[in-house]
Amino acid sequence: MKKNKLTMGVVAGLAGVAGMANAAQHINPEGTGEVLIYPYYTVKNGLDTNYSVVNTTEDTKAIKVRFLEGENTIEVLDFNVYLSAYDVWTGVLTAVVDGEGNVVNGEHRTADESCAPYLPKAGQEFLPFAMLTTDPLAVAEGNVGMNRATEGHFEILEMATYPDTTDTYAYSDHGGSGVPSDCDSIESDWDDGVYSEVGDLTEGGLFGSASMVNVNEGVAMTYDAIAIDDFWVGGQGSHTRPGNLAPSIASGDTNILIFDEGQIAALTYPSGAEAISGLFQRAEIYNEYALDSFVAGKTEWVITFPTKNPHVNGAIVQPPFINPWTGTDSCHEFSITLWDREEQIEVPQGGTISPEPPAGTNPDFCFEANVLRFLRPNAETTVKSVLGSDNLTTVRTPSVGHATENGWARVNFATYVDANGYLGLPVAGFAAQQFTNAGAGEGLLAQYAGLFVHKGMIQSQ
After folding, report:
1. Is 292 exposed, middle or buried (0-12, 13-18, 19+ CB in 10 A)?
2. Are 258 and 458 in contact (CB under 8 A)?
3. Higher pLDDT, 459 or 20
């Protein structure tokens, strides 16, 4: 009975947070918001990443769609979309390959009819311009290749809302034909330099999802975007022209609401970047691994720090991060403990982590989007991975006991502290598992896959 009361109390509290109008930004447990964070995309390893965003309201929304490469969270493509009432926008990211079949870049494609000024819908490769102009350390190191853009994460921000009394609503409305009435007028308005209608108030109501699909292998892995509500102070958004790097997820309210041991905690941070990091702050994350040899089991964890860039790229590194971007990396140590399903425990050291850290030190994650691969004690490192990531760290499962194939792990970030004394790093992601069953039936090869969102712990000093 006590457990049920606690559970119902937490649920009631979450519902209360979701209902607070413009109180402070928070992750909405109901799944809708003004900002959507998609923790990972990839065009490697035969995978395409499909995504969607849905407008659940009766008004038109101007949204910013932004893709960020996986090493230093630099923009490689962004554009505006004008979602009409109850509209859906979809797109796909696919690989660009060279003459030898190597994946060298990503490309965005869409067949969606919604208004997206200046976007070549048939195909737009990711672009290096922001890396060349905003990442001078990487330029100095020669680290500006578009291979950085073959994996990363993306975000969608609501910039403005337009009711049915506005021209923007009329231009973007699909009417009875399913095609917007006048996208050219929206583009022409931006050709003048300033959008003519003031409509910067926002209301939320966006949700989204993404799927990583390997068509040749018949595998799909799907996740929901993380929804942040009450992002803008007083609902006052910022509607900028297509291609403008503002607004960003650092543009929001400096006040946030989180749950700390079942209680709502209202926190204020020195900057919008630190505030949104506070929403994702975790001292520890937990998930499972499954490596069943009978079905060629594979498990990889995506560990993304979606707010890392504004913390590590300035003259002073902002907490909870401590190490600046060098032009090639910004490394932060972690510790990991593994348990198999029969309670056997192992704390990897030395050769159980690859690349192997120096003696006496912990392994580290050096990029914005990182992948942690789990292998059995004696498995070959040449086995084909699930996601094909270049930002890869490998860990071996417990060598003691008899159940080395399945279990769970805990990654600890508790050595880091943010401005409000909360431990950890701002992290999002999931475990990706893939299985191949060669014995599904005569002449059949069955593929299975799944994604499981990380669990975590919020902890203050």
Report:
1. middle
2. yes
3. 459
E-strand spans in 138-184? 151-162
Shared-domain flag, residues 314 and 369: yes
Q: How far apart are CA 426 and CA 419, in angstroms?
A: 13
**Residues 23 and 125 occupy one common structural domain:** yes
Is 248 within 8 Å of 75 (Cβ atoms)? no
Neighbours of 185 (CB within 10 A): 16
Is 265 inside a domain boundary?
no
Give, in degrees to the nearest 5, the angle at Cα 430 between 424 and 434: 145
Question: Residue 326 falls within a domain, yes or no?
Answer: yes
Tens of pLDDT, residue by residue over 272-306, are 999 999 999 999 999 999 999 889 999 999 999 99
What CA–CA distance (Å, rounded) separates 245 from 131? 12
Note down the domain range covering 371: 279-457
Answer yes or no: is 260 within a domain: no
Instruction: For residue 149, give the nearest of 98, 104, 213, 108 by alpha carbon.
Output: 104
What is the distance between the alpha carbons of residues 284 and 203, in angstroms, rounded to a whole number?
Answer: 33
What 8-state DSSP symbol labels residue 250?
T
**Contact residues for 369 (Cβ-Cβ < 8 A; gap 6+):** 40, 70, 71, 151, 152, 153, 302, 303, 304, 389, 391
Count how many domains the chain has: 2
Q: Which of 109, 37, 71 is nearest to 313 (CA)?
A: 71
Where residue 186 falls among pLDDT bands split at 50, 70, 90? very high
CA distance 4 to 417: 33
91 is written with which tokens?
């797109």
pLDDT of 136 > 50? The answer is yes
Dist CA 131 CA 126 (whole Å): 11
Q: pLDDT tens digits, residue range 206-261? A: 999 999 999 988 899 999 999 999 999 999 999 999 989 999 999 999 999 999 98
DSSP-derived letter for residue 382 is T
Last residue of a domain, one of 182, 212, 235: 235
Domain finish residue from 235, 264, 294: 235
Q: How many angstroms separate the first and last alpha carbons of the chain?
A: 31
Dihedral of alpha carbons 59, 86, 224, 48, sign: negative
Interval 152-168: pLDDT, tens = 999 999 999 999 999 99
Q: HSE on the CB side for 120, CA within 13 Å?
A: 8
